Every structure is written in C-alpha cells, then in structure tokens.
Amino acid sequence: MHILITGGAGFIGSNFVKYMLSKYPDYQFLNVDLLTYAGNLENLKDVKEKANYTFIKADICDKAAMTKLVREHSIDVIINFAAESHVDRSITNPGAFVQTNIVGTQVLLDIAKEQNITKYLQISTDEVYGTLGSEGYFTEETPLQPNSPYSSSKAGADLLVRAYYETYGLNVNITRCSNNYGPLQFPEKLIPLMISNALENKPLPVYGDGKNVRDWLHVEDHCSAIDLVLHKGDAGEVYNVGGHNERTNIEIVETIVEALGASKELITFVEDRLGHDRRYAIDPEKLTKKLGWKPKYTFETGIKETIQWYLENREWWERIKSGDYMNYYQQQYAGK
Ligand code: NAD
Ligand code: TDX
User: Fold this and answer.
1) How far away, in angstroms, is 84 Cα from ligand 2 center?
2) Which of 35, 36, 181 has most ligand 1 atoms within 8 Å of its beta carbon, as the pocket-test mutant?
C-alpha cells in the first residue's frame, strides 16, 4: 500500500505514522502536513530517515499541490488527520476550522475520486454527536448535533465523506473517537496542560464546575482501531472508537495532582467554556464485535505512562510553551 497520511506531524498523526512504520515495513508512507502551530517535526525525528517514509509540507486545501503529490507518490489510500483540532480556538476563530476541516476534506475527496484512490479514511470525533445527559452512549446511529464551531466543521466534513460514498461510490470510512491522550499531545489540551502546569507550579484552570465528562482513549489504542478499519472496514461505514473510560475533568486533574505530588491549591475554577458539552461517552460495540478491536490500556495504566512521558520529555513541551503558544495561552486565559 502507498498511504498518504495528512496531519501526520500533529499529536495523533505522528503517533499513527510511528505505529504504522513499525508494523508495516513494506508499505510506503507519505506524510503531508502544513506545520501549523500544532504540527511539530520533532515528533518524527526517530523515523525521518526511514526509506519507506517521506514528509512534505503542504496545505490539504491546495488542490494542485495535493494532486501532484498523490500522483508522484502513486498513492492508493488517503487517511485524513489534518484539522484544526482545539475547541477553544474554534470559539475565537471559526474561519480557520471551516477552511481546513471542511474545505480541506472536500479537496481531498475530489482528489480521491479523480485519482482512483481505493480507500479514503476520515478521522472524525465523537463531538459531532453533540452532548449527552447523565445516561446513554453515542452509537453510529446517534444523530449529528454538533455544538461548537470545531465539532460543526468536523460534522460538515463527515457529511461530505458520506456524500462521496452515496453519490460517487468512493470507498470511504469514518472513525469517530473519544478524547485521546498520550505522548506528544500539544499542551493546550486538558491532560498535557495540567501535567505541564503542575510541573511548573502554575494554576490548573478547570472550566465551570469541573463535572463535565470525557471518555478517554489512549492514542495507541486509537491507532490500532484505525489500522483495523483501514484493513477490514466495510465500504461507507462509520466506526466509533472508545474504551469506556468516562471521567469528570476534576477527577482527571486530581489524579494528575496526586501522581505528581503537586499542591491541590493549584486547582483553580475558571469561567466555563462557551457551549461546553456536558458529557461524551462512546458505545464501541460495532468496532469490538465486527472488527475485533480490543484496547490495550486501561485509563489507570495509560495515564501513569503518559505522566511519566511528560516527566521524561520536559524539553519537548517546554519548547512549545515558551514559543508562539504563549501568545495564544495568555489571550485564552486573560481575566480568568
Ligand atoms: P493536532 O492539532 O495535534 O494535529 C493536527 C495536524 O494537522 C497538525 O500537525 C497541523 O499542522 C495539521 N494541519 C492543520 N491544518 C492543515 C492543513 N490545512 N493542511 C495540512 N495539515 C494541516 O490534532 P490531533 O489531536 O492529532 O487530531 C488529529 C485528528 O483527530 C483531527 O482530525 C481531530 O479532529 C481528530 N480527533 C482528535 C481527538 C483528540 O482527542 N485529540 C479526538 C477525536 C478526533
Ligand atoms: O484548561 C482547560 N480546562 C478545562 O477544564 C482545558 C483546555 C479544558 N478543560 C475541559 C474542557 C473539556 O471538558 O477539559 C475537557 C477536555 O478539553 P480539551 O482537552 O480541550 O478537549 P475537548 O474539548 O473535549 O476536545 C478533544 O476531544 C475531542 C479534542 O481537542 C478534539 O480535537 C476531539 O475531537
């Protein structure tokens, strides 16, 4: 297989590139990433010399550039991770989300159709389903009711993927996973933000009452799910990915504080996120029963290993936090 991975310098994409390179030495991988604030080639320094791996900087919205790359590298599969991914940023700047997440997906779908791509795999999110009350789970049949500009743009992309299957018969799959955590996650997201702030003895900003629930998935378990869908997914199907690890945000923050021996006094309740979804929880039965997926991590083992990774890779996140990210960070938390 000749696989195009877009957004492969980001958190999940770079974990996936490494996972696939070690599992499939006979496949060819082309990683295309625009290297926005979230893209970091340092994530891939261990694999950059591999003969079956190429990185090229490009924008998925640039049809001419992307078509040329797909042709030159004889691509037969596209896996689209590239996105603007942070909900808080989508609240302050929705335009960038519409551009990359919707227009970028449509450009890739057109290329897939025109260049006879054999499989197009869209990496989506459980956030397209909206929010749950205290009971129930998202299944693949749950209606799409996205609430943030981010999740709306991901839902828009999912609908285009569906349309290219129904209208043109393109062989597509969509995966919708819950919140990922693990090594190489950009420290604007809850878990790496809390770990790194605790290590720097900085306040730990918890939105609202801290009782919003997220369903946590280790990034390596997400990678194994994508691998299965890539090889065994039925055409046109959606697969939810989640490991039944629901936790309130305050539980997560307290777990981190305890593991690091940090002071509980750092926990600071701040103004809530606008339109903050209350609870996400995935029913992964289709993936487990039909494709035989089984997560390797429990939340307890995964969070322990993840905290250890951030302890051992302090320079990685310190470099990010001291750069451009600081401007955004100061703006985001100003007055909170
Ligand atoms: P990320 O923000 O860490 O990485 C996104 C990558 O896409 C970056 O490397 C960035 O440079 C690249 N990119 C952005 N715009 C681009 C463009 N126009 N052209 C090419 N590359 C571009 O995000 P992530 O957390 O790794 O998420 C990856 C995918 O998984 C996204 O589609 C996201 O919606 C989805 N997802 C993430 C989570 C999560 O918990 N992180 C959960 C569910 C779904
Ligand atoms: O400082 C914070 N304080 C806080 O209480 C931050 C950054 C977050 N939170 C809360 C908001 C959420 O309830 O923690 C929860 C998790 O927040 P994020 O890490 O921003 O993730 P979330 O908004 O749930 O979205 C993530 O999961 C689904 C990813 O960023 C998305 O890309 C993915 O689709």
Assistant:
1) 13
2) 36
How much is the pLDDT for 30?
98
Structural domain spans, the chain: 2-181+218-241
Examine the pLDDT at 45 and tell me if it is beyond 70.
yes
Cα atoms in the 13 Å half-sphere on the side-chain side of 220 = 16
Q: How confident is the model at residue 325 (pLDDT cuts 50, 70, 90)?
A: low
What value does the mean pLDDT of the chain take? Answer: 96
CA of 13 to the centre of ligand 1 (A): 7
The number of CA neighbours under 13 Å toward the Cβ of 201 is 0
Amino acid at 126: D
Q: Which residues of 10-43 are buried (b: 16+ CB within 10 A; e: fewer)?
A: bbbbbbbbbbbbeeeeeebbbbbbbebbbbbeeb
Please state whether the predicted TM-score (pTM) of the whole model is above 0.90: yes
Looking at residue 288, the DSSP 8-state letter turns out to be I
C-alpha 87 to ligand 2 mean position (Å):
7
Asked whether residue 318 carries a pLDDT value surpassing 90, the answer given is yes
Among residues 1, 203, 175, the alpha carbon closest in space to that of 80 is found at 175
Ramachandran angles phi, psi of 260, nearest 5°: -95, -5
Alpha-carbon distance of 93 to 89, in angstroms, equals: 6
At the topology level, CATH places domain 2-181+218-241 in Rossmann fold (3.40.50)
Contact 39, 33 (CB under 8 A): yes
127 annotated active-site:
yes
The ipTM estimated for the assembled molecules is 0.99
Q: Are strands 238-241 and 204-207 parallel, antiparallel or unpaired?
A: unpaired
User: How many degrees, rounded to 5, is the angle at CA 169 between CA 59 and CA 99?
Assistant: 25
φ, ψ dihedrals at 163, nearest 5° = -65, -35
pLDDT at 138 over 80: yes
Query: Which atom of ligand 1 lies at the shortest distance from residue 104's CA?
Result: 18
- Cβ(280)–Cβ(178) under 8 Å? yes
- Give the pLDDT of residue 327: 67
**pLDDT computed for residue 323 by the predictor:** 78
